[in-house]
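Allow me, if you will, to draw on your knowledge of protein folds for a short while. I have a record of one protein: its chain in single-letter code and its fold written as discrete structure tokens. Kindly check, if you would, that the fold set down in the tokens agrees with what the sequence suggests. Thank you for your consideration; the sequence and its tokens are set out here:
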Amino acid sequence: MRTLRAATLLSLGIFVCGPASAQGTQASGTRMRVDAPATIANPYTAYEFLIGDWDTRPSGGPDIAIHQNFRWGTRQSYIYYTTSTRMNGGPETIHFEGMLVWNGASRNLDYVIAIEPGSGGQEQGILRVEPDGSVIREVTMTRANGQVSHFRQTFRRTGPDSVVTSLMRQTATGWEPNFPGSDALTMTRRPA
């Protein structure tokens, strides 16, 4: 009966693990070792400085207020990312929202977000960390009509409650600001 139970649990992928390993029983009656799932260092550590609510404004350009929010998902196993905008003092509206998740193969965060929810547009891409600690968001945006554009956002921490970010779009001649002033945006953390 014990052999049948162990075989059933293993075939269902259910493992009862102790602190370091678990023991199961093979059909032949010999003990086999089933290792506990591997643990890794927190892959989100390099991105933690972004967690929170941020007011973002260009130093010049259009009258636009950008509210960026990064918040933890369940057990800090992913990050929700929402950006809202307010043009010319109007009401704040969601520009995009979605999820960032660690990818162990690429060692980056993968993400997919809905652009202008309800529009049928989306962004997908990765967040990666540079050797200097800056975070790069590589963007492929696909509109509902299938039109594809590429963007790049860089986050550089300048203090515990401040970040400089840039939002660039790819053109036939290279990278240029997405809108006037988007190559030097100041992010200030909102008080909790």
About this structure: Residues 1-26 have pLDDT under 50 and may be disordered.
